[in-house]
Write a structure and sequence with these properties.
Chain B: Keywords: Signal. The complex is a heterodimer of chains A (203) and B (158). By secondary structure, chain A is an alpha+beta fold. Chain A has helices at residues 2-32, 81-96, 117-127, 138-147, 189-202, and strands spanning 50-53, 58-60, 69-74, 104-109, 131-135, 152-156, 162-167, 170-173, 179-183. In chain A, helix 2 crosses helix 5 (189-202). Chain A starts with a helix and ends with a helix. In chain A, 38% of the residues are buried. Chain B starts with a helix and ends in an 8-residue tail after the last helix. Chain B is mainly beta and 158 residues long. In chain B, strands 1, 2, 3, 4, 5, 6, 7, 8, 9, 10 and 11 form an 11-stranded mixed beta sheet that branches. Chain B contains 3 helices and 11 strands; from the N terminus they run H-H-E-E-E-E-E-E-E-E-E-E-E-H. The chains are: A alpha+beta (203), B mainly beta (158). The A-B interface holds A 74, 76-84, 87-88, 90-91, 94, 114, 119, 122-123, 125-127, 151, 155, 157-159, 161, 163, 165-169, 182, 184-186, 188-189 and B 35, 37-45, 70, 72, 74, 76, 78, 81-85, 87, 89, 107, 109, 111, 144-147, 149-153, 158. Strand 7 of chain A pairs antiparallel with strand 6 (82-87) of chain B, so a sheet runs across the interface.
């Protein structure tokens, strides 16, 4: 009776080792390849940045503290993921009704070379005048995004144009700049609305 | 409901305009549409579906339109939370007996439209197929509503 039990124990130990190896591999792939992941509660939205809004006015991290916020990073030369995300955020603002005042929605361009403040203004106003559009120079945007664990990269396409690969999820942030969670594109609108409501409730 | 469906099926062939379908050979191009974009938007996303009811494979190799500087075929995806877009340079396969969508991760990207297009407008274009040849179609511009976006985009508005 003892033998099979210890055999099982050995098997279990081997399996757990495999699990650990797999987990380590996943961790390496997630963190080791330069792509970082945000930790809930970390106040990385309180880190300094300097950009301009869609009216050309200078803004910094302080401009968005004091109220919960939702941050989306994209670009206007984006035919489906970005306009869909903004249309959905506009839908969430509608669904919040008067509570929409308790949330700031921010769209940061990861393509500041083409997205001037004027371009951003037209763009965000179309979806919802309550959405703030931010741009700047490439260095400013890169530093700001990196501090907030946002990945983006310029990718050339045939014929001299280029496109941007970028983080598709939306980051939710508390009023004091702490990371609260994300809204993922594959989540239903109800799930996202519930998360936003929870963010507003917790401030 | 069944009666309604039957009625629609009977009416269907009588009013092709309502079906918004275009044919070339054995290919049936259904409902080309473009989602309305913000003013001055540099790009418009186009969607449609192609049913190949014939016995031989075909391929959509290009879309041409006087309304844009260029029309490209793209594949866009969100994997591991990263949005990526790739140009489809070898065309979109339309195998015999299947229906293929520009939508569902693929789209036609109209670059630098010649003016602002709003819901209700129509944009003419020519689809170029490897075997079936060229067919003129009309993309209908439709409103992008938060509601339709929220309901995971219906059939081919992605």
């Amino acid at each position: 009776m003892k033998k099979p039990a210890s055999g099982l124990r050995t098997l279990r130990a081997v399996l757990w080792t495999l699990v650990a190896v797999a987990a380590a591999g996943t961790l390496y792939l997630t963190y080791g390849t330069g792509r970082q992941q945000a930790e809930a509660g970390e106040a990385f939205y309180a880190k300094p940045f300097s950009l301009v809004n869609q009216d050309g006015a200078a803004v910094s991290e302080a401009s968005f503290l004091g109220k919960p916020s939702a941050w989306f990073y994209g670009f206007t030369h984006c035919p489906d993921v970005c306009p869909t995300a903004l249309a959905e955020m506009s839908g969430i603002l509608e669904a919040l009704g008067p509570d929409a005042e308790k949330l700031q929605v921010v769209f940061v361009s990861v393509d500041p070379e083409r997205d001037t403040p004027e371009v951003m203004k037209d763009y965000v106003d179309y979806f919802d005048a309550r959405i703030t559009g931010l741009t700047g120079n490439l260095d400013q945007v890169s530093a700001m995004a990196k501090d907030r664990y946002i990945f983006f990269e310029k990718v050339p396409v045939e014929g001299g144009d280029y496109t941007m690969e970028h983080q598709a999820s939306i980051q939710l942030v508390t009023s004091d700049g702490r990371f609260f969670g994300t809204l993922a594109t594959e989540e239903g609108i109800d799930v996202r609305l519930a998360k936003v409501r929870r963010l507003i409730d917790q401030g | 409901m069944k009666t309604l469906l039957t009625t629609l099926l009977l009416l269907g062939p009588a009013i092709p305009a309502a079906a918004h379908e275009f044919t070339v050979g054995d290919l049936y191009v259904d409902h080309p549409m473009i989602e309305e974009a913000p003013p001055n938007a540099p790009v418009l996303g186009g969607y449609l579906s192609i049913a190949n009811r014939g016995g031989s494979d075909d391929r959509l190799v290009a879309i041409e339109s006087a309304a844009a500087r260029k029309v490209e075929l793209h594949r866009s995806s969100v994997t591991d939370g990263i949005a990526r877009m790739q140009q489809i340079t070898d065309g979109l396969a339309v195998p015999a007996g299947t229906t293929v969508e520009l939508g569902d991760g693929n789209h036609a990207m109209f670059l630098d439209p010649d003016r602002r297009y709003v819901a209700g407008d129509e944009i003419g274009a020519t689809l170029v197929f490897e075997n079936a040849g060229r067919v003129d179609v009309v993309f209908e511009v439709e409103k992008r509503s938060a509601e339709s976006a929220a309901s995971s985009h219906g059939d081919h508005a992605r």
